[in-house]
Amino acid sequence: ETGVTQSPTHLIKTRGQQVTLRCSSQSGHNTVSWYQQALGQGPQFIFQYYREEENGRGNFPPRFSGLQFPNYSSELNVNALELDDSALYLCASSSSTPTNTGELFFGEGSRLTVL
Amino acid sequence: AQTVTQSQPEMSVQEAETVTLSCTYDTSESDYYLFWYKQPPSRQMILVIRQEAYKQQNATENRFSVNFQKAAKSFSLKISDSQLGDAAMYFCAYRSLLTGANSKLTFGKGITLSVRP
After folding, report:
1. Does A66 touch chain B (CB under 8 A)?
2. What is the DSSP secondary-structure string of A14-83?
3. Tell me: the pLDDT tens digits for A40-49?
């Protein structure tokens, strides 16, 4: 069983640039969610995708957007980067089937630094 | 909106001893999940233990157990026979079970656990 994989693991951008982060969900999982984790803090929910549609969003501005593809992989796009966007971005997958145990399976994250 | 509070930023335990990590939460819902996740320096969140709110029995996973007090909205994690590999950041998290709700987790700020050899 393949786990959740994310790329890139680290990247550095400058203010105003755009970034795309990628995530492959765990085999058999149809739901992907993204979290932002600032240093020393708990993860904050950005949004979730199910069947290629966004079906939940946290308190993040529209410059945070995403996609989910037919194979359930996902992208997180952030436009007009700000210094405060520096964080670890975590992708998590889960299954929406009735046997779902409720837990999310996380990738190792993408560490974004904005200079 | 639900909130999760972890008021202890750091804790330390001697190897082989027992430690308890505290968590409280606030919700108006009656059905939900609670989780403890571990995040080692490798950054990947790993599930430690899960509790369904409708179950009165406290969850147990090997050396890890919880004390779930639904009325008090308290969910503490007990780690017995602590090992060096238990050193990590631990997060308490809440997930709603409302029909149609997405799988959003609400996390606390976390607690850094160190294990002394």
Report:
1. no
2. -TT--EEEEEEPPTT--EEEEEEE-TTS--EEEEEEETTEEEEE-S--TTEEEEE-TTS-EEEEE-S--G
3. 899 999 999 9
